[in-house]
Design a protein that fits this description.
six-stranded mixed beta sheet, binds adenosine-5'-triphosphate, 10 helices, 26% strand, binds magnesium ion, Rossmann fold, four-stranded antiparallel beta sheet, single chain, alpha/beta
């Protein structure tokens, strides 16, 4: 059974329909990439799954439970956590407080402290910066914090929106290493990326999205080999 099952999903903003009936699945311990041009609806897809944008039609289920109309905090509690596009760090809160915010649905203080320590092990720079205001971190540090904050919800499914955007290659490699490691530990990951080649090399399966529709869906290796994907998204 799929962990996440999105069927015929429609969503948009005011009079504009952005998602025109998309369907996708993420299986347990699977890395799935969504690639597509600017404005295709990738962020809207993740935001609708995490409850920030309302579905207008279609359904989203997680572990067999219908979450289409569930409130965002309930979706986090069920195990879907998101690192949003643009990171959305709380600029005035310290690094440690930002991490605590990621655990807002939890009340197990000892577990939360333990998970903060684990975040510091994964991203040692965050430990060094733990008392510094989030808004004063570099872009790469903010991206690590955004991922670490999402992990504080102990996700079964991690949604990552453009984790590589604007970062130096070294930091991108670090973040992709962490994604691979989380997946090896059993976490499912739905990854939206402009860096299509890297995303498809990391992912097991991928979807191509064009103007609110899924136009291709296949194993990632096959998408990498596909002439249309190469021309449109891999610059070949
Ligand atoms: N809050 C909003 N209000 C109105 N329209 C929006 C809003 N957010 C996104 N849109 C529109 O929805 C469409 C899809 O946007 P979305 O952010 O989902 O695309 P994307 O695939 O993530 O693009 P990018 O690669 O640039 O991040 C775009 O035409 C965008 O202008
Ligand atoms: Mg986007």
């Amino acid at each position: 059974m799929s962990l996440l099952n999105v069927e015929n999903l429609h969503a948009g903003y005011g009079p504009i329909e952005v998602l025109k009936g998309i369907s996708l699945k993420v299986g347990p311990a699977e890395i799935v990439a969504i690639i597509g041009a600017n404005g295709a609806g990738k962020t809207t897809t993740l935001m609708t799954i995490s409850g920030g944008v309302r579905a207008r039609a279609g359904s989203i289920s997680f572990e067999g439970r219908d979450i289409t109309q569930a409130p965002a905090h309930e979706i986090v509690r069920l195990g879907i956590c998101q690192s949003p596009e643009g990171r959305k760090i709380f600029p005035r809160l310290s690094v440690r407080e930002n991490l605590e915010m990621g655990a807002f649905t939890r009340s197990d203080q000892a577990g939360i402290r333990q998970d903060i320590e684990q975040a510091f092990q994964r991203f040692p720079i965050l430990q060094q910066r733990q008392s510094q205001a989030g808004g004063t971190l570099s872009g790469g540090e903010q991206q690590m914090l955004a991922v670490a904050r999402a992990l504080m919800g102990r996700p079964k499914l991690l949604l990552l929106d453009e984790p590589s955007l604007g970062l130096a290659p070294m930091i991108v490699l670090k973040i992709f290493d962490v994604i691979r490691e989380l997946n090896r530990e059993g976490m499912a990951i739905l990854l939206v990326e402009q860096a299509a080649r890297m995303a498809l090399k990391l992912a097991h399966r991928g979807y191509v999205m064009e103007t609110g529709e899924i136009t291709m869906s296949d194993e990632a290796a096959r998408l990498l080999d596909d002439r249309r994907v190469q021309e449109a998204y891999l610059g070949e």
